[in-house]
Design brief:
rod-shaped; 4-stranded antiparallel beta sheet; alpha+beta
Amino acid sequence: MYRNKGTITVFLSLISMLFLSLFCTMAESVRVQAARFQAAAAFDMGLFSIFGEYDRVLLEEYDLWFLDGSNEEQKIREVLETKLEKYIQPNINPRYNLAAGRSWDVFPTELDRCTVDKYALATDHGGQVFYSQAVENQKELFVGEAASALKKNIKQMEEGHQKGEEYQNEEQKADEEYQRAQAAQMEEKKRQESEKENAEKQEESDTDIKETEAVQAKVENPLDQIKKIKSMGILGLVLKDGTVVSDKTIERKNLPSERNLQKGSLLVNEISADPVSEAIFLNYLQKHFQCAVDEGGKHQKGSKEHSLSYEMEYIIGGQKSDRENLKKTVNRILLIREGMNYATLAKSAKMRGEAMALAAAITGAAALPEFAGALQKLLMLAWAYGESLLDVRTLLAKGKVPMLKAETEWKLPLEKLGMLAEVLKECDAGGGNGQSYEDYLSGLLILGKKQQRNLRVLDLIECNRRMEKGGETFRVDALVAQAEASADFELAPVFLRVPAVWMHVRNQGTAYTIKGQYGYGQP
């Protein structure tokens, strides 16, 4: 009797242990899945919270979303990992950093470690990450009509740049042609003098020479005056009298465009530099950076002092001082105007005729046709140069100049070419139709190298931030746009502790890894 009762008790005990083990296993499985969800939520909140620490000054002043990962004692990766752990721990363990108390946690999860596997920086790929965000953030603010107008302006500037290069080549060829024609004229003069055989012919020839010299004495060659003007400083010619040029300078050797930059390894979706994107980016630059014709030299979004007053000119010229950048920019605009103005002269039969008549008057009737023709071309080139100086002076006076002028829009008469210095002083008014100074700057920015342009913009952002309190160590190559991270968790067993004791097995927890990616502008 006792044996039967004992047998039944052992059997029921075995059955109860199996059912209890099954129940504990099922409960533990549910608990593990819930703990995984909790860990994933804590990880997502932690990653989101990191990027919630975006640089507010960048957002307010430049409409950019970036996380400042700079730290004098830690690398960018370490900074991000420390921040991620700081945000995950309180969410995964509510009593983290609190005094120990009596409580039972059904999800006793421990964070083993956080790892930032990859990240993308503003300066990656020649500043393309910065470019993409600047364009993406401005899309909604840039209407279609403005984009079309800017694209049209870009096309005209590209044509002007090509004409400017043609002007330079034409100027060099014309000068060489003139030198050859002048040498041939001298040879011809010597030959004629050597062929005089009698006194009557000699007397007639002397009379012709004197008459020619008299004509030459009456007609002054304006090219001599143009040479003197070209040797003068360009800024003194195109700026109003009394204009004060900024003397601000920066040290370029440690700026992003010059130094070795920190690099991220995360590939992000970048916006290609198509015409629409370029138009949006140029609008962004005009909105956030000042140029030589801005009132007071102040930032358009505030009154904070900047490292340079001619920021757009710096993006174009890349020199260390405002004066050098303005000079380089003005010379490039001047070249475009020279090319387009020479194209106007070349198409106008009337203006070509005026230049030929002046060339004939200067050289005299006895001159070879080639000599007068070569001088005509030089006069037309000098005429285009003089008109271009007037154009640039108008632009800097906040006026407008059409890309290709008509004869009726011409300002400089040929007879006043030799008095160009005096004419320039009288041209201080703005007005006019066509493109403004800012439009010409936009064209030059489009024609330049994209990577170089993007990094120079970042130069300005870094310099300006370092002038502000708290931004002395600011670096644009520590600005994080996106990050890819992972976290390792350890979940201690709860319900499996009972069968583990019965079956004398090792009480192991559950380990798992959560991965994710987040960033500004990420879909």
